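Journal club side-thread
Mid-discussion, someone asked how the predicted structure for our own chain would compare to the paper's figures. Pasting it here so we can look after the session.
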Amino acid sequence: MANIIAVITNDGTKVKAGGAPVFVEHNDEAREQVAFLLEKILDASAHNLKNGSIIIVNRQ
């Protein structure tokens, strides 16, 4: 089972409020950099949804 622990998106209106923090980055490079850093800091996995959003998941 995996839990979404963060969302990085280019459009905050695409993401419904939930239990994970949402980071809005309009620039592709900045979005990928934030995802990379969160992936390392949280010891989790980043997954690009190819719709302008990247999710960070923690597998338990």
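Post-session note: The first strand starts at residue 2 and ends at 9.
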